[in-house]
Design goal:
Blueprint (H helix, E strand, L loop, with lengths): L1 E5 L2 E6 L2 H18 L4 E4 L3 H15 L9 E4 L1 E4 L9 H8 L11 E2 L8 H14 L5 E4 L21 E4 L2 H7 L12 E4 L2 H5 L3 E6 L5 H9 L17 E6 H10 L1
Parallel strand pairs: 2-11, 3-4, 3-7, 4-6, 7-10, 10-11
Antiparallel strand pairs: 1-2, 5-9, 8-9
Helix pairs in contact: 1-2, 7-8
The protein binds fructose -6-phosphate.
The site of fructose -6-phosphate has 13 residues, from helix 2.
Length: 253
């Protein structure tokens, strides 16, 4: 496994998705073991699913205990009910929470059925603040460079809020739905300010379709049109890539 350091970023290049997931699980597990009351920030989607499988296996083997862990999720589609099998609430339950010994009363996901989204968003940010901040935030990255659902824009949104998904994100996520028209057009997302307040950040990316966004995240100008580039300003970022996602970055060094 190759390890390179660029600015504040500790970058690991693994051979494939499985090795990426195992390395990520090692890093996340070290935080859960080291903190008395660990606070994790969680992502959904195809990228972290393998990491969650690894964490489940470690928990079942008695290597890691989640009983004192709290968790905040980055985002949720809007509008969507918790019961919908396309909701991120459902994803987290099926892919992680129901398999580990986490107290689900300490897991928080923006409510995609909230009537007053502004109130819901403010309450979510306050909850994160009141816990003292996230110890380790797990991030994926959109092919367009989004983090959480902070899409390319003219500024970096700071707070949790409702956003419109871009056409490219709707197309990317259509693979999880029967029909592209079923993909929600909006989401509630943690803002970039809240993400940047996390003590540590770990970003994962797998596959050639992420290669350009990863190169720009690490080497490009920091700009809201490529939201993940803001990570250059965070003091403690680990990026774990597979070879396909690392290709453009490695060719530019
Ligand atoms: C999901 C999230 C998104 C995804 C990104 C990549 O909670 O915050 O930013 O991480 O869209 O999605 P996948 O992993 O499905 O390629």
């Amino acid at each position: 496994m190759q390890n390179i350091k660029i600015l504040n970023m500790d970058i690991y290049i693994t051979k494939d998705y499985d090795e990426m997931s195992k390395k990520a699980a090692e890093v996340v597990a070290s935080v859960v073991k080291e903190k008395e009351n660990p606070i994790l920030g969680l992502a959904t989607g195809g990228t972290p699913a393998g990491l969650y499988k690894e964490l489940i296996a470690m928990n079942k083997a008695g290597e890691i205990d989640f009983s004192k862990t709290s968790a905040f999720n980055l985002d949720e589609y809007y509008p969507i009910s918790k019961e919908s099998d396309q909701s991120y609430y459902y994803f987290m339950r099926e892919n992680l929470f129901k398999h580990i010994n986490i107290d689900t009363d300490k897991t928080y996901i923006p409510d995609g059925s909230a009537e007053d989204v502004e109130k819901e968003s403010e309450a979510f940010d306050k909850l994160v603040r009141d816990t003292g901040g996230v110890d380790m935030q797990i991030l994926g990255i959109g092919t367009n460079g989004h983090i959480a659902f902070n899409e390319p824009a003219d500024n970096f949104p700071t707070k949790t809020q409702k956003v419109n998904l871009t056409e490219s994100t709707i197309e990317d996520n259509a693979r999880f739905f029967d029909n592209i028209d079923d993909v929600p057009k909006e989401a509630i997302t943690m803002g970039i300010g809240t993400i940047m307040n996390s003590k540590r950040i770990i970003m994962l990316a797998s596959g050639a379709n992420k290669a350009e966004a990863i190169k720009e995240t690490v080497l490009g100008n920091v700009r809201p049109q490529l939201p993940a580039s803001i990570l250059q300003f965070h003091k403690d970022v680990t990026i774990i890539l597979d070879e396909a996602a690392a290709k453009d970055l490695l060719e530019s060094l």
